[in-house]
Design brief:
mainly beta; seven-stranded mixed β-sheet; four-stranded antiparallel β-sheet; 11 strands; about 0% helix; about 55% strand
Length: about 120
């Protein structure tokens, strides 16, 4: 059973930074890819950033240059470093992992950007 546990969310002022963590129950290299999604109230869930098993990354246009996805093999953890946060980054952030045609989700963590 794959488990993904997110942490690191919270309340931050515009322009501030947060780092989200996603700890996996197994080796992160067993996954085809891992990603971060977010969902704001009244909006659809959207892809924020993705990292493949080979280490390639992709970031959505709204966060390009501000957010960075990375991973730590020793800790089986994927991170999302979020800098220069904006009001519109407020959302519930979810960790996602895929392997063998299966998709797994974490429980999510709230990020609120407010002055």
């Amino acid at each position: 059973q794959v488990q993904l546990v997110e942490s690191g969310g919270g309340l931050v002022q515009p322009g501030g930074s947060l780092r989200l963590s996603c700890a996996a129950s197994g080796s992160i290299f067993s996954f085809n890819d891992m990603s971060w999604y977010r969902q704001a109230p009244g909006k659809q869930r959207e892809l924020v950033a993705l990292i493949t098993s080979g280490g390639s990354t992709n970031h959505a246009d709204p966060v390009e240059g501000r957010f960075t996805i990375s991973r730590d093999k020793a800790k089986d953890t994927v991170y999302l470093q979020m800098n220069s946060l904006k009001l519109e980054d407020t959302a519930f952030y979810y960790c996602n992992a895929r392997k063998f045609g299966m998709t797994y989700w974490g429980q999510g963590t709230q990020v609120t950007v407010s002055s």
